[in-house]
Structure formats: structure tokens, C-alpha cells
Design a protein that fits this description.
heterodimer; A: mainly beta; 14-stranded antiparallel β-barrel; 2 helices; B: mainly beta; 10-stranded antiparallel β-sheet; elongated
């Protein structure tokens, strides 16, 4: 029976759509729109994924993933909403797996982990009808451009408990992914007796680059946790694939700093706050490689939230979470630095606990957010659903 | 474990509810990272075509399965219809003298009538023409018979005793009046009817002709009704219909040689082949350079549409179409083996490209466009979609061979309105990474 259930779980996970895309028109600038590789617990508290009580597997905070038993986590994240810009508007809808990870405890003081997380989303499109002069008259056409792809990270990490209060950790890995950019011109055949083949031009690039992070987690008191991490991404290469002409592009990505802290206000109420910062202006992404007015900028973000664990049914706790986050995007849009703001709420299901270790947990978060920059505003709902299992 | 199962079920449910993907799609053209130019250009034949060849001999007149009669049509064309009837009935069921219906096998053929039905729409005549029916005397071979040869097969050539299907035994004459109907009848005497019953006789056959000048009449149906006197009841005459085994016609003169024009159709059919060599870079015409800049690099991706534009010419007298025809274009798979090269599949589709008859009259005005986009794309690329080398030559032909005795003619290379390759081209653009 156990095997049957395990098979059922695996089948359901595998049967779920495997898309790993998010969608935003802000993705047209620079390298796209950042995607935080954090789980639903952090999302529910509007955290940037660092400094939370408990443990979590995330590449941006390697010290968070220390546990005394093997652990496995996966997060699903559907998003839906709409956008408007000047006299245009439309819908957006998509889903992604922002973080998947596995950890294996190496004794009581260390843990090896592997994480696969999102980094940048590059999915957006333009479709513009036009009339072109052709054969002495005008011919209706529809020009379309679509960017499809993204960048992810895969990292191997190790966290080590130096003292009961201090954990040092690091990870190394790679940025990977690909992007396909397609321009097409469709000729309108309505009312015209002759068919004209569509024109299509396409470029495909593979992303590859190094990534690494170091982190520290310090619990100076029983009810306080402080964490910090530095993420280094090295030079990201865009290698042309297939018949795509042109050279390999190099992008020197900036260091990203993250800090976070949590404190227990009462035995059942915890406060968490976190911040991140990266100076994208220092990279060679700026100026001539971006559309006018879309230069790279600094990206500062912060989030704060509460977690209340007072709700329990049948001996199992169901933490409630709330939070607010404000985050700058790294690439300007029409001269403005886009800002994403999010109000978040979440609910945890601690399904199985033993000796202080959560063996099975499911977290659900729902965010209502917006991104604004220039004339463009996007409003979205984002749901995150994480499964966390330990002691397998 | 049951909690994990429940969690997985919930997760799958959440994903199922949100599994649609809608990419945010702006409509602002300024967000397009590239802006290619699309232009229409025409290349004269001299810039893409060469080695034009015109061949005939494809198919036989007998494959048309029609019977054409013409006399000085368009001042030149003579045509005589030839028909060979099939096997006569061997039995008839008839009432004997006592009134009992019996099957009689002892039959006497006492006469008959040829019933010919005219295609009234295609008939050309000034006044009701006199039509003549005669019985062939020479041995003949229906599939290969022509104006001068009764048989024209490999190693076996047999001329008619005189051109035009030889001497005949006159049977009957009739005047066909379109105002009366579409049927003409000729009486056939009993001797001829009995002679045609001998299926081993290689000379059996009917010839239809006309003496009226300027006439062209096509028969869609020619049947023989035989009168039979059964032995069980000699006072009764029974009529039975005999179908045709072969129906063809012979004509004179053949179409004159071409004088530089493209020629398609006819029976036997004509084909026109030419080699296609496209330049890698276009240096003109001026409108292309003005819109897209020159030299313009031609690529398969840049060709959105390509049509071979043919300007019509006057077809030879006697062979000008009076009905809509259709032409086809195919690749020549082995140019060295022309005219017997195998040819590729149709580029023009199942129905071909329609060519109305007025295109080929004495004052031809008009053009038709033959779509060859996929071929031009392959030719520019050098390979077909499955990786085979693209054939270098094209053949123009009628959609079926033979389709009609009528001929389609088009202005050829070097003529006033030679063929052109009309293309819609879009400038090749590289999609930028950012």
C-alpha cells in the first residue's frame, strides 16, 4: 500500500505540467525578470528566502538547508493576472517550478544539498498589425515577436554547523538555460486570393555561467536568528545555437547580497525581515546593449512578515503567515526602475513531526502583487505550493 | 504517508486549475526588436531562366477518348473521327410464334444505325454541317493511328491507303442542326453491320467526316444500334445497342514548330522545360534596392511568395482553346534524360492553374501566375526539405496529358513579354539577443 501511495504521488507530480515559465512584459529588458528561488513558506511571509526559522533548501541561502535528516522539497507556482500600458492591456498566465531541492545529512553537523532554482524569466511577446506597401497597394500584415526561455541555477551545496548557534555554508554550480527569440510576419490572406508564406527569423541561445554562494546563519539567542549570504554569478555566456549567427555574448553579473533576520515575539508569533541588493549598473549589460531608457539599475528589495503558529488541530500545527515585500527589478523600463510590490498570505500544514524535526510539511502561499514601471503596470495573483519531506 | 498523498492530490489539483499559459503580448510596434522590409520584385526570364526546350509526343490522341471532326477549321485543321464498335450481342430474348419468351442464339443482323451525340458547346460552325459516315477499309490500330499511319508502333508502321484514314465505303450522310437536337444518325447497311460483327477483322471501323468548311464538331458519344431478326420469330426485328471499343480521331496538319514561345497541351502533348538559376544576390530592380538595399541576399527564408508569370500568346490556328484548360508545373528530376526525364510531383496542386481560352486567341491579352514558392525556396537553399538536392529545371505541362487537342501558348524568352519571376521578398534579419 505504501508503495502504491508513493507511486501515486510520483505519478501526480510527473503528470503535472512541466512548464517552467513565468510571464512579464518587463522581461523584454536586459536579461529578463528575476524569479526568486524560494518556497511557499518564504513566499507567505514575503521573505526573500533568508533568515527564517527552521530549514529550507534554496540556492540563495545555502546555510538555511541544514537538517539532521535527508530532505526533499519541490515548489509549484501558478501565476495569473493582467497588464496595461497606455491604451493596451492583456492577460498573463503561467506556472513554474521556482525551486526543487534535495539534501542529505552527513552526520549531525553537516548536510550536502542539490538545488535547481529559477533565476531569470525571459518570456514575453509583441504582436502588432500593420499595413505595408506591396505590389502597388497596401497589404495587411501582422508582425509578431516572441521571446521564450529563461535562466536557472543548479548548485551543489554544503552546510556545516560550526557551533550549535553558527552555521557556515556554501554552494557552487552553474547558470543554465536557453532562450529562443522569434520574429514572424504573417501576411493577411483575407480577401486576397493568393497565399503568401509567413516570414520568420529566429535566434536561439544557450545560457551558461558559473554560480556560487556563501552564507552564514547565526542564532545569537534562542529566539533570534540572523543570516546573510553573498551570491556570485561570474560571467554569463549566451552561446548561439543551431544556425543562429553572431558571437557568444558575455555578461558579467553582479554580486548579490542578502540578509535576513527572524525573532520570536511570543512563543507562537515570529517576525521575519529580509533584504537583498545587487548593483546591476556595474555590469556590461548597460548602455548600448539595452533599448534607450532601459539601462540596468540597482535592485534593492526588502520584505517582512509574520508567522503565527497558534493554530493547531489534532496535535498538528497550521501556521498562518502574512507579509509585505517591495523589490526593484534590475532593468529599467521606459526610463523607470520597475518595482514589484506584494502582499502575501500563507498557510502551513505540518503533517508529521518527530523530535523537533518536521518530516512532512506542505505550505501554501497566495500573493497579490503588482509591477510598475514607465507606462506599464502588471497586476497578478501568484500561488505557491511547496512540499517538504524529511527523513525519507 | 496519507498526508503526503493528500498533499500531492492538492498540488495536482492546483496545477490542473492553472495549467494554461498566456504569454503577455504587447501590441506596441515600437517594442518589436526588428523591422524587416517586404517588397515585391520581378525578375525577367533572362535573370533566372535558361536552356528552354519544347518537346512534344507525350500521350496519344486515342487517350482523349473523344471523336473530333473538323474541316478547314481555322482554315487549316482537318480531323476525322474513327470508331471501332464492340462485340455484338450473341443472344436476344424474344417471344416465339406461340408467345413464349425464349432466348434465341441464332441471330441475323439486318441493318443498323450509328447514333452520334454532339458536344454542342464546343461545336464551331456557321451553318448546319453535312456529316459523312463511312466504313474503314484499311487495317488500323486505334491507339496509334494518325493522319498518315494506320499503325504506328515500335517496329510496326502501317500507312493508310491514303492519308486521313484511307479509303472508306460510304455509308450515309446527315446534316446536324443544332436547333433540332444534339443527335445525328447514320444508317448502316446490313453488309457493313455483319462485317463489323467480325471482331477479328482489323479493318472494322467507322469514320466520321465533314465536307463543310470551317467546321469543328466533337462527338461525346457514338453508338451503333443494330437491327436483329431472331430465328424464333422472323417477323420481329429487335434493336440492340453496341458500345464502342475505341474512339479516336486523326488530324492534319500537326501544330507547326514553335518559334520561341512556351507551348503546353495538345494531343500528343507539348511540354516546355527550362533551367532555373537564381542569383545569390539581387542587384535590382531599382524598387528592391530602394526599399531593401542592394545587393540583396536571396535566402529561402526571405522568399514569401514566388510565382512564374506567363504572358499568353496566340496558339496555332486550329488548336486555339475554346474551353478552359489547366496547366501544371513540376520539377525535372534528370535534365540529361530530357525529354524522357522523370518528373516530380505537381507544384500547382491537384487542379493545376486554370487558363481561360480567351488568353490564347488572335489577340492574346493576359497573364497567369503559376505558384512555385516552395520550389524557389528549395532552389535557393539548394536542397529539398528532406535534404535531397533541388532539381535545377522545371517543366510546364497540361494538368493531364493529353488534356485536349488544344494548345496553350505563352510568350517565350526574349520575346516582348517574356516570362518573369514575381517574388515577394522580406529582408533577412538577424533576431537580436536583446
Amino acid at each position: 500500500m505504501t508503495r502504491l501511495r508513493a507511486t501515486l504521488v510520483a505519478a501526480m507530480i510527473l503528470a503535472a505540467p512541466a512548464g517552467a515559465s513565468g510571464q512579464s512584459l518587463f522581461a523584454r529588458g536586459g536579461l529578463g525578470v528575476p524569479v526568486e528561488p524560494v518556497g511557499a513558506r518564504a513566499k507567505g511571509m514575503a521573505s526573500l528566502g533568508i533568515g527564517l526559522f527552521g530549514s529550507a533548501l534554496t540556492p540563495v541561502d545555502p546555510a538555511a538547508g541544514l537538517e539532521v535528516v535527508p530532505m526533499l522539497t519541490v515548489t509549484l507556482q501558478p501565476t495569473w493576472g493582467d497588464w496595461s500600458a497606455a491604451d493596451q492591456s492583456g492577460d498573463l498566465r503561467g506556472q513554474r517550478f521556482p525551486i526543487m531541492g534535495a539534501g542529505y545529512a552527513t552526520g549531525a553537523r553537516g548536510m550536502v544539498s542539490i538545488t535547481l532554482g529559477s533565476f531569470m524569466d525571459q518570456r514575453w511577446a509583441v504582436e502588432a498589425p500593420d499595413t505595408i506597401p506591396l505590389g502597388g497597394g497596401g497589404r495587411a500584415v501582422t508582425d509578431a515577436f516572441e521571446s521564450d526561455g529563461g535562466i536557472s541555477t543548479i548548485r551543489l551545496g554544503y552546510a556545516h554547523r560550526i557551533t550549535p548557534q553558527l552555521v557556515l555554508a556554501g554552494n557552487v554550480g552553474a547558470l543554465t538555460g536557453q532562450v529562443t527569440r522569434t520574429f514572424s510576419r504573417q501576411f493577411d490572406t483575407t480577401g486576397v486570393s493568393v497565399d503568401v508564406d509567413d516570414f520568420e527569423a529566429q535566434g536561439r541561445w544557450r545560457w551558461i555561467g558559473p554560480a556560487a554562494a556563501v552564507g552564514v546563519r547565526w542564532d545569537p539567542a534562542q529566539l533570534v536568528r540572523l543570516s546573510a549570504s553573498v551570491n556570485w554569478y561570474g560571467t554569463l555566456e549566451a552561446q548561439p545555437q543551431d544556425s543562429t549567427p553572431g558571437p557568444t555574448f558575455d555578461f558579467d553579473l553582479p554580486l548579490e547580497f542578502r540578509v535576513g533576520a527572524s525573532g520570536a515575539l511570543t512563543p507562537e508569533l515570529a517576525l521575519s525581515a529580509s533584504a537583498s541588493y545587487a548593483d546591476w549598473t556595474a555590469t556590461d549589460l548597460a548602455a548600448d546593449s539595452l533599448p534607450p531608457g532601459d539601462a540596468a539599475s540597482t535592485a534593492l528589495g526588502f520584505g517582512a512578515g509574520l508567522e503565527w503558529s497558534g493554530l493547531a488541530v489534532g496535535g498538528k500545527s497550521f501556521p498562518l503567515r502574512f507579509g509585505y515585500k517591495r523589490q526593484q527589478l534590475p532593468f529599467k523600463f521606459e526610463g523607470d526602475t520597475p518595482i514589484e510590490t506584494v502582499l502575501a498570505g500563507g498557510l502551513g500544514f505540518n503533517l508529521a513531526q518527530a523530535e523537533g524535526v518536521t518530516l512532512a510539511r506542505m505550505d501554501l502561499a497566495l500573493e497579490r502583487g503588482s509591477r510598475s514601471g514607465g507606462s506599464l503596470t502588471e497586476r497578478f495573483w501568484r500561488m505557491s505550493l511547496s512540499f517538504h519531506a524529511a527523513g525519507l | 504517508m496519507r498526508y503526503i498523498t493528500a498533499a500531492a492530490v492538492l498540488g495536482a489539483a492546483v496545477l490542473s486549475a492553472a495549467c494554461d499559459e498566456t504569454t503577455p503580448t504587447a501590441t506596441d510596434p515600437s517594442l518589436l526588436p526588428v523591422a524587416p522590409t517586404t517588397v515585391e520584385v520581378e525578375l525577367p526570364f533572362s535573370e533566372f531562366g535558361s536552356n528552354t526546350q519544347v518537346f512534344t509526343g507525350f500521350g496519344r490522341v486515342s487517350e482523349l477518348n473523344t471523336a473530333l471532326v473538323a474541316n478547314e477549321f481555322d482554315g487549316v485543321l482537318e480531323a476525322r473521327a474513327l470508331v471501332r464498335f464492340g462485340t455484338y450481342p450473341r443472344t436476344v430474348s424474344v417471344a416465339d410464334e406461340s408467345g413464349v419468351v425464349v432466348t434465341d442464339t441464332v441471330l441475323t443482323f439486318v441493318g443498323g444505325r450509328v447514333v452520334a451525340i454532339v458536344d454542342t458547346l464546343s461545336a464551331v460552325l456557321d451553318e448546319p454541317p453535312l456529316l459523312l459516315a463511312g466504313a474503314l477499309r484499311d487495317e488500323w490500330h486505334p491507339p496509334s493511328a494518325g493522319w498518315t499511319l494506320a499503325r504506328d508502333t515500335v517496329g510496326d508502321v502501317l500507312p493508310w491507303s491514303e492519308p486521313g484514314a484511307g479509303n472508306v465505303t460510304f455509308l450515309d450522310s446527315a446534316t446536324w442542326d443544332a436547333a433540332v437536337g444534339d443527335t445525328v444518325m447514320f444508317d448502316v447497311d446490313s453488309a457493313t453491320v455483319n462485317a463489323w460483327a467480325d471482331t477479328a477483322d482489323g479493318s472494322r471501323g467507322l469514320r466520321l467526316s465533314s465536307t463543310a468548311a470551317g467546321v469543328r464538331v466533337e462527338f461525346t458519344t457514338v453508338l451503333l444500334n443494330v437491327d436483329i431478326r431472331p430465328s424464333v420469330n422472323p417477323d420481329t426485328v429487335v434493336e440492340r445497342t453496341v458500345a464502342t471499343d475505341d474512339r479516336t480521331f486523326v488530324y492534319e496538319p500537326p501544330p507547326p514548330p514553335t518559334t520561341g514561345e512556351f507551348r503546353l497541351g495538345g494531343a500528343p502533348s507539348w511540354r516546355t522545360t527550362f533551367r532555373v538559376d537564381l542569383p545569390a544576390f539581387l542587384e535590382g530592380p531599382p524598387e528592391l534596392c530602394e526599399a531593401a538595399g542592394c545587393p540583396f541576399q536571396l535566402s529561402a527564408e526571405s522568399v514569401n511568395r514566388a510565382t512564374l508569370v506567363l504572358r499568353s500568346a496566340t496558339s496555332p490556328p486550329g488548336f486555339q482553346p475554346d474551353d478552359t484548360l489547366a496547366l501544371d508545373v513540376r520539377t525535372v528530376l534528370s535534365e540529361d534524360d530530357l525529354p524522357k526525364s522523370p518528373i516530380g510531383s505537381s507544384l500547382a496542386g491537384l487542379l493545376g492553374v486554370v487558363a481561360p481560352p480567351e488568353l490564347f486567341g488572335d489577340t492574346p491579352e493576359g497573364e497567369i501566375s503559376v505558384p512555385i514558392t516552395s520550389y524557389i525556396q528549395d532552389r535557393v537553399r539548394g536542397t529539398t526539405p528532406i535534404g535531397d538536392p533541388t532539381p535545377e529545371a522545371l517543366v510546364l505541362l497540361s494538368i493531364f496529358e493529353p488534356l485536349s487537342v488544344e494548345i496553350m501558348s505563352f510568350q517565350g524568352p526574349g520575346q516582348e513579354e517574356e516570362p518573369v519571376l514575381r517574388m515577394i521578398l522580406t529582408t533577412r534579419v538577424g533576431v537580436p539577443l536583446r
